[in-house]
Amino acid sequence: MNRFSEVTPRKGTRSVKWDLVKQMYEDEEVLPMWVADMDFQAPEAIVQAVQNRVEHGIFGYTWPDDKVKAEIKDWLHTRHQWSIESPWITYSPGVIPSLHMIIQSLTDIADHVLIQTPVYPPFYSVVRNHGRHIVKNQLQYENGEYTIDFEDFEKKIKDHNVSMFILCNPHNPVGRVWTKDELNKMLEICLKHDVTIVSDEIHADLIYKDHKHIPIASLSEDAAKQTITCLSPTKTFNLAGLQASYVVTPDAEKRKRMDKQFQNQGMMMLNTLGLTALEAAYEHGEEWLEELLDTLQQNRDYVEKRIHEETDKINVIRAEGTYLLWLDCRGLQMSHEEIKTFMKEQAKVGLNDGASFGEEGEGFMRINIAAPFSIVEDGVSRILQAVHTLK
Q1: Is residue 48 part of a domain?
Q2: Stretch 297-312: mean pLDDT
Q3: Kind of pairing, strands 349-350 and 31-32?
Q4: pTM of the prediction?
Q5: What is the CATH classification number for the domain harbouring 324?
Q6: Count of structural domains, the chain
Q7: Contact predicate 215/76, CB 8 Å
Q8: Angular region, 251: left φ>0, alpha ψ -120 to 50, beta rest
């Protein structure tokens, strides 16, 4: 059996995705296709590396040596043609904690921070929770595609004296992989107005054919100095529960201020097994990743084809990256609350609420397709059967 077709039961493992179904959706029959982790086992090389480390039996304080840094550098160079230096790396338990540290260390209370909506919900909280103000550059949705309004992007920066821009690339939830031209235009504006760029690139390795991820910091020396990049193998290799990520900050002054904030919070060390998994992932995971990408592309194409052939009430936005599909459900002619209820009670599929990504997400839902085909097929069938019952 193909390793990406085998269904591994996850109930009873304290899985957020599977064991909180009743709490989230008030019905244990709901099929969870929401939170962004995969229903695939991690690569055997990672599992074996973690098992070998467990068998040692001592889990004292662990530090990332030069070999770990070398694996990170090699991965970024090989996969994304980005050459970084070892001192630029700061370790963190996750991208969200990193965003909190960056906001606190590189902006002041009452500063304005730009985000592009609809966007990953924590982008809102990491700004607001620290007394900063959100400025929205709403993505433009037309003919089933999202683009950037660059005129609005610059105007918002000027009008609100924006000090920081949080970029999401690939973009969650709309699935765009920003092109070199788009990245250069955003960079040019941020350099012009001295706006620090924080780039969340956690989905950087999950790119479909005919698209390419470009780290914005790799565009030029000026881009590198202006940018802080958040990365992790956890989305790529389904390691979220091991909590291992890192931040790449070429500018020494920015890095010094950010590292001090990490130190103040006692967050400068990875856990032993997370570090082991990170190293094994980057050293041995490439073949597994290529097979994963083929599987995700097949799942994406299946969902698109089947929904578009069987109903005109839901439109699947074509994802260029990530394993998350953005569904335009406005053709159902329901209020947003009615759409949520319909998916939960009639379709019995647990999706992400589009409005949680901002008011621009009303009428939309997000579905996770990183699962064996049998699960994806079941989820799509449930949705379409429910749609076909509508008068």
Answers
A1: no
A2: 98
A3: parallel
A4: 0.97
A5: 3.90.1150.10
A6: 2
A7: yes
A8: beta
- Look at phi and psi of residue 142 and say left if phi exceeds 0, alpha if psi is from -120 to 50, else beta: beta
Query: Are both 265 and 330 inside the same structural domain?
Result: no
Could you tell me how many residues make up the chain?
391
- Residue that is last in its domain, among 231, 263, 283: 283
Q: Is residue 334 part of a domain?
A: yes
Query: 3-state SS of the chain?
Result: CCCCCCCCCCCCCCCHHHHCHHHHHCCCCCEECCCCCCCCCCCHHHHHHHHHHHHHCCCCCCCCCHHHHHHHHHHHHHHHCCCCCHHHEEEECCHHHHHHHHHHHHCCCCCEEEECCCCCCHHHHHHHCCCCEEEECCCEEECCEEECCHHHHHHHHHHHCCCEEEEECCCCCCCCCCCHHHHHHHHHHHHHCCCEEEEECCCCCCECCCCCCCCHHHCCHHHHHHEEEEECCHHHHCCHHHCCEEEECCCHHHHHHHHHHHHHCCCCCCCHHHHHHHHHHHHHCHHHHHHHHHHHHHHHHHHHHHHHHHCCCCEEECCCECCEEEEECHHHCCCHHHHHHHHHHHHCEECEEHHHHCHHHCCEEEEECCCCHHHHHHHHHHHHHHHHCCC
Residues 254, 137 share a domain: yes
Q: Which domain holds residue 189?
A: 57-283
Instruction: Say if 2 falls within a structural domain.
Output: no
Say yes or no: 75 and 35 in one domain.
no
What are 58-103's pLDDT values in tens digits?
A: 999 999 999 999 999 999 999 999 999 999 999 999 999 999 999 9
pLDDT at 97: 96
Q: Which two tokens stand for residue 389?
A: 């019952």
pLDDT band at 266 (very low <50, low <70, confident <90, very high): confident
Residue 71 shares a structural domain with residue 138: yes
pLDDT band of 267, cuts 50, 70, 90: confident
Q: Point out which residues pair with 196 in neighbouring strands.
A: 164
CATH of the domain at 268: 3.40.640.10
Q: Are residues 68 and 174 in the same domain?
A: yes
pLDDT of residue 1: 55
Choose among 215, 221, 214, 216: nearest CA to 251.
221
32 and 80 share one domain: no
